[in-house]
Amino acid sequence: MPQIDIASVLRQKAPGLARRIPQFAIDWLRRTVREREINHILASYWDLPPQEFIRACFREWQVTYSAIGLDKLDPAGRYLFVANHPFGGMDGMMLADKLTERFGDARVVVNDLLMHVEPLRPLWIPVNKHGSQNSDYARRFDEAFVGDLPVLTFPAGLCSRRIGGRVTDLDWKPNFIKKAVASQRDIVPIFVEGHLSNFFYRIAQARKALGIKTNIEMLWLPDEMFSQSGRHFRLVVGDPIPVGELQRFGSLREQTEEVRRKTYFLEKTLAALPDKR
Fold first, then answer.
1. What's this model's pTM, rounded to 2 decimal places?
2. What gap in Å lies between CA 203 and CA 205, rounded to an integer?
3. Per DSSP, what are the bridge partners of residue 67?
4. pLDDT, tens digit, 9 for 90 and up, residues 26-83
5. Which of 11, 34, 90, 164 has the most CB within a 10 Å radius?
C-alpha cells in the first residue's frame, strides 16, 4: 500500500538539506502538507484505477466540477490541451478525469513530486523542476507526444499568483508551442475557474519581497486543496487552434501570448451561465 513519507521525500530530493532539518521541523512539515490526511486517502483507495481514484479524492474533499465545451471535440482527435493553473495539482486531477471521460485516457505534464501519489502515476508525464530530467522521465515525455492520447500541460509551470490585485498565471513558457508543432497536434485552451486563499498569496508576496527564490508557499498547496470543500468549479474548453494559424501572430513569444489570451478570454463564458452547476 503506497504511503507518503515527507522525511523520505526530503532525503530523496534534497539529501544534504534533509540531514540538517531537526525532527520538530519534520513534524511541522508533516502537518502542513497534510501527510496524515493524504495517507488516509491512499490507504482507502490505493487499488482503484486512476480515474476512479481521482473521483474518490474529490468525494473526500466534497468538491465538484463540470466541463463546458468538451463534447464538441472529436474523440479521435490528437490534441494538446493548455490551461491556466489556479490550484497547482487539483486542477490537473479535474482535467485528467474529464479528458479520460471524453477520450478514454489522457496524459498530464506534472511536477515529478506528484509521482509519489502512486495511483495516478499512469496519467502523469513527470518533469523535474529542480534538477536534471532523468532518462525514464524524458522517454515518457517524448512517447506521450508521439502517441495519440490527449496531452494536458500547464504552460506557467507553477500555480497562479495574485499579480496587480488579480489572480493570474505567471509567464507562460513557449515550449508547448514547439511540442505542438513537432507532434502535429492542435492546441486546445481551457480556462479553469477558482483561486487559492489570501493566506497563500500573501506568503508568496512576502517570500518575493524578502528575495527568497525558493517557492516556499508551495508547502501549503495540499492544505489549500483540502480547504476547497463544498465548492464547485467549471472548466471551459475552447476551440482547437491549428498550430499553422499561430504563425501569423509573429514570434514564438507572441504566439504563446495569443494562446494565453484565448485561454483567459474563456472566463467571459462563465458570466453568461445562469448556474454554477
1. 0.92
2. 5
3. 235
4. 999 999 999 999 999 999 999 999 999 999 999 999 999 999 999 999 999 999 999 9
5. 90
Q: Is residue 70 part of a domain?
A: yes
Q: Are strands 232-237 and 186-192 parallel, antiparallel or unpaired?
A: antiparallel
Q: What nine digits make up the cell of 8?
A: 523520505
Query: Furthest-apart CA pair in the chain: how many Å?
Result: 57
pLDDT tens, residue by residue, 175-203: 999 999 999 999 999 999 999 999 999 99
Residue type, 223: D
Residue 87 DSSP code? S
SS3 content of the chain, % helix, strand, coil (to 5): 50, 15, 30
Look up the CATH number of the domain holding residue 149: 3.40.1130.10
- The SS3 of residue 224 is helix
Domain span at 253: 63-271
